[in-house]
Amino acid sequence: MSQSYLHISNVRKSYPDPESGALKMVLDIDDFRLESGSQVAIAGSSGGGKTTLLHCIAGIVTPDGGSIDISGTDIGKLRERKRDRFRANHIGYVYQTFNLIQGFTALENVMLGMLFSGKGVNKDKAEALLVQMGLKDRLHYKPSQLSVGQQQRVSIARAVVNDPELVLADEPTGNLDPASSEEALALLKEVTKGKMLLLVSHEQDVLDRFDRVVALHDINRATMS
Amino acid sequence: MTTLSIVTKNLRKRLLATVLTTLSIALGAGLILSILTIQSETEKSFNQTSVGYDLILAAKGSQLQSTLNTLYHVETSTGIVPYALYEATLRDPRVEYAFPFYVGDSFRQYRVIGTSTDYLEQAAPRRGMAYTFRDGRNFEAVHEAVLGGLVADQTGMKVGDTFFFTHGVTMADGAAEEYVHEDHPVTIVGILDYTGTANDRVIFSAVQTTHSVHAPFQGTPEDHDHEHDHAHDDDLEVAAKPENLDAVLVKFKSPASALQVAGMINYPVPANPVIANNLRRDPLFPYREGIMAVSPAVQINALMNIIGNVDWVLRAIAVLVVIVALFGILVAIYNTMEERKRDIAIMRSLGASRGTILRIILLEAAFICFMGSFIGLLLGWAASAAVAPYLITSAGIFIEPFTFSLNHALVLMILIGLGIIAGTIPALKAYRTDVASHLTPTS
């Protein structure tokens, strides 16, 4: 099996300024690489373009230019439908606000991650992952019946259920208390072993848990100044 | 976990809106389908019953009334015609068969029709259908009667039972003269199979029977002193026959003969002496004064045109109800779009394509329409079943409520199709949902 990697090259993204209407560059990355099995944290303050970067990598937002190469696939060059399918199969995403669907149980939220992969829904696998996350007794609980720490664990299980080669985590501990934060981070690092993990955070104690930390303003020319 | 389970979960999440929208579709569908059922069954019932007769010879009056009275066993007679007219039709070489028609008595709410023995052997209640007996045999003597299938089922009477005719017939408003001919017991000798026509709700007997128990009666029941002619001999050949009938039902050997006789009876004698003399040689000419020749087919067409106009109004109302219900679907789903944008964005971020999202919303609309149509079908059947007994007693229309025709299927398919179209607007809104801006928060 070939080595997986992420290579961002000359990626730029601008948004219209809400007040002036003029285009404002939020992302301008010349070169950034992530190798197979590496777990990297990106440090950045609020409004620094962290979420935009992750959205671009996930193919949720299309960059204005440049390329985002994930193990040989330039996600920006894929047609939308293929990009959606690629995202389902190759990229996991953990959000600060968990982004669980409220009407679905924990198990259903995890299975939802499998539904769009085109590989079929494996209920046993989803259950096993939630058990691994310590949620054996909460499989059929809806998000509103779970603590925020438990919700984030469901979110982590959903992100890795399709065995993606790349997991993106956007401030995953931002809404958690210190104990839940510690627990979620440990689980995230555990279940992404051997995969690429790219986590963005502004919390120092989270960043301290990573061997490699990159400051966003060091790679993003749009915010260097 | 499938796309369909997402659809059902979404619908369950907004259960009240889903149920109300489904019910509004069901009401519209039920209305349309019941109108369709009643209209088509009524038309079928009328057409079926009218098969087999070319002309009704009856006393001058309303042609439609005469048709309703003789073929559908509702309304009153337009008057009387001489029994000799019936005998003349039997002698007429142009006539294939003819039956006397005499009505004036009833049993409970069911009319007693006095006719000839041949009627149940030769007449066809429907095209190509003969009267068949569920039990027993045809009447062969005075004071014998045959019950229509519905009469037997509704009264619980069986072969061998005896009963008494009641003077007068029950009308749609329930009014009836009340005098029971208790001195003339009539024996049930046969019960007919269902024909699906108004004939199921009548009692057949010989004209000699109806005449023997009931001569023309003037005055109150108390005055009924049985002064009329009673024939107590049970042999039909020798029993006294009535002097008058309510009508004569005639089937001619050729349609041209029917037209010729109808023209001779209904139009004035032409001034041309040659034609007039020819007409005077017609065997039925001596009876033409005071009678009319009614073509049931023409009358039924006229009636259907009247019903058709009412029917269109009802259909238009039903279509409006459906349109309102379809807008209900549109609004019900559209209003949820704002709160669902986040769910849609989450699904998109998990790899759901725009097409998948579009499909989910359209399936929701289709599901509501399908359920509404299905419930509507049940409602339509229930409404038709509720109306059926009333139609049979008041109008003599026999309808089969639980029908499912091609038209029903077509209406349901159109409804589901329109529901999907109504779902298109919210579905397109969902399709265009921006993913990034709804995966809050951003930094």
Attribute tags:
heterodimer, A: 225 residues, alpha/beta, 5-stranded parallel β-sheet, 4-stranded antiparallel β-sheet, 8 helices, B: 443 residues, alpha+beta, 11-stranded mixed β-sheet, 13 strands, elongated
Structural overview:
The complex is a heterodimer of chains A (225) and B (443). Chain A has 225 residues and is α/β, with parallel strands linked by helices. Chain A contains eight helices and nine strands. Chain A has a five-stranded parallel sheet. In chain A, strands 2-1-4-5 form a four-stranded antiparallel sheet. Chain A is globular, with a radius of gyration of 17 Å. Chain B has 443 residues and is an alpha+beta fold. Chain B has 13 helices and 13 strands. In chain B, strands 1, 3, 4, 5, 6, 7, 8, 9, 10, 12 and 13 form an eleven-stranded mixed sheet that branches. In chain B, strands 2-11 form a two-stranded antiparallel ribbon. In chain B, helix 3 (63-71) crosses helix 10 (296-349) and helix 11 (354-394) runs antiparallel to helix 12. The longest helix of chain B has 54 residues, at 296-349. Classes of the chains: A alpha/beta (225), B alpha+beta (443).
Mean pLDDT over all positions of chain A? 91
Strand-and-helix sequence of chain B, N→C? HHEHEHEEHEEHEEEEHEEHHEHHHH
> Largest sheet of chain B, described in full?
11 strands, mixed
Q: Helical proportion of chain B?
A: 40-55%
SS summary, helix count of chain B: 13
Basic shape of chain B:
elongated
- What is the H-and-E element order of chain A? EEEHEEHEHHHEHEHEH
Instruction: Give a count of the beta strands of chain B, DSSP E runs of length 2 or more.
Output: 13
Which structural category do the helix and sheet elements of chain B fall into? alpha+beta
